[in-house]
Amino acid sequence: MTRRAEIWLSFFTRNLHIISKRRSRMSSFDFEDKLFSLSANGKLAELKALTSLSKTNINAANPNGWTALMYAARNGHADVVKLLVENGAEKDKTNSLGQTALDIAAFWSQHPVIAALTPPLADKREPLHFFTVRNLNRASEMRKDSKLLAEMLSSSSDARIVVFVKNFPLLSTNGKRYTLKMFKYSDLKDLINLEKLEVIFLGIQRRGDEVSHSGSPLFAANISHDKLELLLTSFSNENLQALEKLRDAFILDAEQASLAGLAHSLFDWHSRHEYCPTCAHKTDFSEAGYKRKCTNESCLASREVKNTSYPRLDPTIIVAVMSSDRTQLLLARGRKFLPKMWSCLAGFMEPGESIEDACRREVFEESGITIGHVGYHSSQPWPFPTQLMIGLVGQATTQTITVDKSELDEARWFSRAEVIKMTMRKHPEGFFIPPHQAIAHHLIKAFLHDSASKI
Ligand SMILES: [Zn+2]
């Protein structure tokens, strides 16, 4: 081939490449337009034909970040949403406002689409939060049968009793590991009968997800420090010690800590409700520890359903507040926090509030930040003494912080990079977040997960 022919061939080949590239770009634009239009209008059959041709641009977005999945979600086409997801449409993609297809469906109340974008309940796996009792069949139907429970306590060879000393659990240790000390009835028989100890029936321990009455019946008894001395003399060959505060239960494994938390909440409630909140008469231990009954026969609490008779539970919101662009996280330092520890904002709910309202009020009161969308994450029993932490993720609509010094020492925005360093305990100022046993830890991780696509 001559030099001139080589140059011509090179020129032709280069232009052919450019022409074919332009063609493919044009067809790509056509494909996207068609994809958006068919998705927005719910044209399932035509969309099936289109996606069978190509799936490479299924996640294409317009200049505002809208994808075909978002158009289908906006207009309530659940069947199209399913088809797009099956063909590789990403549910986590966000538009320029930070909304996913699910956010858009929720905003426009497109319930079939919300269902299509949310995994079936059976596939959901909530985080296994510390203090959540899992392997216990509470067998609540047995609580009123005091005769059956007394027989089970005294005669079942599998029955075990955990002992609490003034509401705090008694542990056994080999110097390395701590466990709840499990007593047999014969170990405590005299103490229970002579001292007329009120024994709580916690339930029947089980393995896995089975719900059955076969397993070890588990009870809990609360004793005074004097009685502990007596008990320790009988078990002088063992290293037993009572916790002085429940926070130390973090040394137990998750299952045992959850039992310790459950019984602590109940004993704490009993110790504060010896007198009826309705009429001030004495109350009696009842229903295996899950009720206190007023001794005044004419008391309103005896005639009507009154929650003063049942164990107390205090709903508390805790929220990871993200900035409006989801790139920063609002964290605060409470007045009693460990030095340098930062966590999510939290507060007790009040009567008449929805969970979302309580979240918006607490965050505004403590930090001056207003919250728009509030989403549920998960919940955690928090036995200090009887809270239920309702974990949320909120999106801020303002940025300027005004700290309520009566509630917090400090509050500030942290970038994703800083939060990562805090989780790894490598922050230059030594800042860190709560341990994995606290739901705050998991809410902060949820922010890291959510903001990952922003980097
Ligand atoms: Zn009463």
List keywords for this structure.
Serine Threonine Protein Phosphatase 5, Tetratricopeptide repeat, 14 helices, binds zinc ion, 3 domains, disordered N terminus, Nucleoside Triphosphate Pyrophosphohydrolase, 8-stranded mixed β-sheet, alpha+beta, 455 residues
Structure characterization notes:
The protein is α+β, with helices and mostly antiparallel strands and 455 residues long. The protein has three domains: 17-123, Ankyrin repeat-containing domain (Serine Threonine Protein Phosphatase 5, Tetratricopeptide repeat), CATH 1.25.40.20; 136-272, Nucleoside Triphosphate Pyrophosphohydrolase, CATH 3.90.79; 314-454, Nucleoside Triphosphate Pyrophosphohydrolase. Helices cover 36% and strands 21% of the residues. It is built from 14 helices and 16 strands. It has helices spanning 3-40, 44-53, 68-74, 78-86, 101-107, 111-117, 146-155, 185-194, 225-234, 254-272, 300-303, 355-367, 416-423, 439-451; strands spanning 136-137, 160-165, 168-173, 178-180, 182-183, 199-205, 216-223, 240-242, 283-286, 291-294, 314-322, 328-334, 345-348, 371-382, 387-396, 408-415. The strands form three sheets. Strands 1, 2, 3, 4, 5, 6, 7 and 8 form an eight-stranded mixed β-sheet that branches. Strands 11, 12, 13, 14, 15 and 16 form a six-stranded mixed β-sheet that branches. Helix 3 (68-74) runs antiparallel to helix 4, helix 4 (78-86) packs parallel to helix 6 (111-117) and helix 13 (416-423) crosses helix 14. The chain is elongated. The protein starts with a helix and ends with a helix. The site of zinc ion has 8 residues, from loops. Zinc ion is lined by residues 276, 278-279, 281, 294, 296, 299, 301.
